[in-house]
DNA sequence: CTGAAAGCGCTAACAC
DNA sequence: GTGTTAGCGCTTTCAG
């Protein structure tokens, strides 16, 4: 059976394609009676509209893009959930693009968006991203950054309280008796990484603790390389507390401690930014800064759809900070928050 | 700046749109010289083709759909990674749909595929799915099932060695001294669940162990309900070993054991189907059946693209079973494999 | 090697 | 209320 088109419906009902189109789109200029006839026949013939014909004509695709570095990270997985929930409700489709922490790939992806393939974009940038390409994208169409935002670009942003979270994490370690605290950062560029570093430094300052010369270790995307990097850093700096600012780095700390036979929390107290549902079952259970991943995805999508619905919504000025929470467990000694 | 179209290029170069189109598509009927001129101007004006116009005309979208129950599960997250890697390489786009374990939602999603929005579909069905709708889909366009396949439908399938894995898991528990083994199943319908159950039963049989009347607990998608269900099952059946056939159920077992103050592995040995990278750091470290998630996604996508490339590829007959592996850790007592 | 023309399926003006 | 017409931007015969 070949595809049923609006034209076939028109012929069968002795109506024009325009009428059919309007009837199917619940236009108010169509009488209830013909509307019903059209709908009935459409159902009978199992008519399914061709989205591309419609998109071409309307210059709107009912599709949004989600661009993230990777998906195998609880944060992004949950964020996608939040995004998809909203999109499904609004009848939008979700195209997913993984940049694999590769700025080049990200550029290629962004370039494609100039085609009109998507009506809007939700993006969390790579660790290497600069403003290049993003400025243009934001000018072209509705964009909402979430979590890993690009500071330089004026655009809608959903973030969590990065600096405050790191401040709290640091304070928590200090309360647990740590004096030589290290921070593992995912990037020198990423504003959220820098904010976390700032919160960390401020906390040290406020508690009259010196910033160790090698307090901050900048990690890469290569887990084997990171392992080596951390091992060296741990041995050289003799940390008594560490803050891992990503989920992967949190796991890496456990691996390295195992390799070095350092006990957590006796030899090293650990706090990690992580959304792992199993954090409480780790050995020892991991004290976490848990980000509101699902909510952030949902908030970002909601914002995007508001902009998609009304043109005069000042999207670029929207900024939302959703607080994270510190959950104290056994990888740190301070029991309060 | 309004969108650059093929027509604008044509006017500027005093050529026809047909020539431009051919030049851009590297048609061999175009002279190298004009091809270069066209490409140069396209680059200069930053021409980006409209994918929907092209799709409408060609009746092909260069887009595939991935339909999965959820994304917050390491298995699916890794599978997406595998899929996306292949798709990106082939220049395809990936639409993602979450069925949220809801058969109704899944139906709605499948229905949309009749529109020609996607050229092919990769799907892992919900725990409730029946053949309804799937038969039609498979008739309509290339489809590859992965992991959670639908037995009744004749179609390409990528699975892991479910029965064998469960058999091995059971044998492993028996080797560790378990005599009252329970299995936590995600579904009564799902063929992979049933195969796991079969492998389990066969192993008991082969080792002359009786199948407890309540050996198999069928869980739901509601984690609170599951928690209660497991608690009751654990107390009533006094298991000494348990096989959790999904990642979520594995975590649930840890939760319930904590609540009941049962020690793992002394009171209950646990083995879980899980791809969690942190399995080795759980307390106690979790013995797992680890599925080749990334490979399965990759294999499924590769198969789909083969079908998309050549029409006479007998896609529906393709079946691939990728073995899983048992990784013995401290939640079970047997140390061999 | 290049171009003219026809249309993919749908929608939006504008008539009637 | 319904129909006519003219495309959206691209690809594909088929002529030349």
TrEMBL record, chains A, B:
<dbReference type="Pfam" id="PF00356">
    <property type="entry name" value="LacI"/>
</dbReference>
<feature type="domain" description="HTH lacI-type">
    <location>
        <begin position="4"/>
        <end position="58"/>
    </location>
</feature>
<keyword id="KW-0805">Transcription regulation</keyword>
<dbReference type="InterPro" id="IPR028082">
    <property type="entry name" value="Peripla_BP_I"/>
</dbReference>
<dbReference type="InterPro" id="IPR000843">
    <property type="entry name" value="HTH_LacI"/>
</dbReference>
<dbReference type="InterPro" id="IPR046335">
    <property type="entry name" value="LacI/GalR-like_sensor"/>
</dbReference>
<keyword id="KW-0804">Transcription</keyword>
<keyword id="KW-0238">DNA-binding</keyword>
<dbReference type="GO" id="GO:0000976">
    <property type="term" value="F:transcription cis-regulatory region binding"/>
</dbReference>
<dbReference type="GO" id="GO:0003700">
    <property type="term" value="F:DNA-binding transcription factor activity"/>
</dbReference>
<protein>
    <submittedName>
        <fullName>LacI family transcriptional regulator</fullName>
    </submittedName>
</protein>
<dbReference type="Pfam" id="PF13377">
    <property type="entry name" value="Peripla_BP_3"/>
</dbReference>
<dbReference type="InterPro" id="IPR010982">
    <property type="entry name" value="Lambda_DNA-bd_dom_sf"/>
</dbReference>
